[in-house]
Design a protein that fits this description.
This protein is of the alpha/beta class. Helix content is 53%, strand content 12%. It has 14 helices and 9 strands. It has a 7-stranded mixed sheet, sandwiched between helices. The protein has a two-stranded antiparallel ribbon with strand order 5-9. α3 (51-62) runs parallel beside α4 (82-92) and α12 (273-299) crosses α13 (301-325).
Length: 364
């Protein structure tokens, strides 16, 4: 039974890593020019006590090379100088609109997002966070290249800023793996999530498909819940091109990082059952690969070595090209270490999630 289970785990891992060719092909084939009639965008940013980040990063969004756009910033009950800073920017940038949120019915940022969506002028909504900045000023051009008559959702990529600490290395690797997962699943016809730091969708689709009461009441998972409600195998595209990426600031402590990821993982409880099934099987294969290899060394040494070699080979063949194209090229020499740490992290975050009853939205 252990041998059969080990082969099953290996098969799932190899199948997934070779299926990432879809993502490699999509990234390498991206070529676009600004359409003659660019899609108008309403860019929505939720900000709670983000005064310093607004000063640093909001100009990179306000100064995008794009002809028809409005920038909506939600001041979500801030107690710092965020509102004063936004009013100062508004004097210079007429495209900026400010929505001030007070006395919310539910905790979290969803109420503010709902208000911004309701008041958005354009059909296509683009989302990012106040502690993020576009890698280039063609960010919106890149999103627009994927907006067509058959597309309702565009999922972007948002790598974390590099600072070369051990924690930063792992945070960037984890974000990379997350993007590989949802990017590959989307291209395989099973979109299940995106990151609110870089995604876009149609306002009319949101209004039609998303349960507004449920959306506002649950304080986390605004991006995942929206994608799960709206996405299908035909209407969702990814845009991971360099020109369309948004860089995000990573957490500076392990505790903050774990709190953030626990909150994100909690949203998976609201995924469609088929997504939970496939992700659960893949997660199971990740969680048990290393323990089974170790156990097989004692039960069947040759089989244990073969399991490890086959999986690591398929893993490296496919992950190294993706790392080169997705902002984590510097981690290629540490990739096996990162993979093992990800295995430990997977167990830790799962146990942590089971022991956490209340998930709150603090800063975002």
């Amino acid at each position: 039974m252990i041998t059969i289970f080990s082969i099953f785990i290996l098969s799932i891992q190899i199948l997934f890593w070779f299926s990432t060719y879809l993502l490699k092909r999509d990234i390498s084939e991206i070529k676009y020019n600004l359409p003659l009639k660019p899609t108008p965008f309403s860019v929505i940013i939720s900000a709670r006590n983000e005064a310093q980040n607004l000063i640093k990063y909001l100009p990179s969004i306000l100064e995008q090379d794009y002809p028809t756009v409005e920038i909506i910033v939600i001041d979500d009950d801030s107690s710092d100088d965020s509102l004063d800073i936004l009013n100062h920017f508004k004097q210079k940038y007429p495209v900026l609109r400010i929505i001030e949120i007070k006395n919310k019915k539910y905790p979290g940022k969803k109420y503010g997002l709902q208000e911004a969506i309701n008041h958005a002028s354009y059909e296509w909504l683009v989302f990012t966070d106040a502690d993020c900045y576009p890698q280039r000023n063609q960010w919106l051009q890149g999103i627009a290249a994927k907006c067509n008559s058959s597309t309702d959702i565009v999922l972007g990529y948002s790598p974390y800023q590099l600072n070369n600490s051990y924690l930063n290395n792992f945070i960037r690797y984890e974000a990379f793996i997350t993007a590989v997962l949802y990017g590959t699943f989307t291209l395989a016809g099973m979109p299940y999530m995106g990151v609110g730091r870089n995604m876009a969708y149609r306002k009319s689709k949101f209004m039609e498909k998303v349960d507004k009461e449920k959306f506002e009441k649950i304080s986390f998972g605004d991006d995942d819940m929206a994608v799960n409600a709206m996405a299908d195998r035909r209407n969702t595209a990814i845009q991971f091109d360099t020109r369309a990426r948004v860089i995000s600031l990573p957490k500076s402590t392990f505790q903050d990082f774990i709190h953030q990821k626990t909150r994100h993982i909690s949203a998976s409880a609201y995924y469609h059952w088929i997504h939970q099934l496939f992700l659960g099987v893949l997660g199971l294969s990740q969680a048990f690969f290393y323990p089974l290899c170790f156990l097989m060394l004692f039960l069947n040494f040759k089989l244990g070595i073969m399991l490890f070699i086959f999986r690591i080979t398929s893993f490296l063949i496919n992950i190294l090209p993706l790392m080169s194209r997705m902002e984590v090229k510097d981690l290629r020499k540490k990739v096996i270490l990162m993979d093992f740490l990800f295995f430990l992290y997977y167990w830790y975050i799962s146990i942590k999630r089971i022991g956490t009853k209340n998930i709150s939205w603090t800063k975002k």
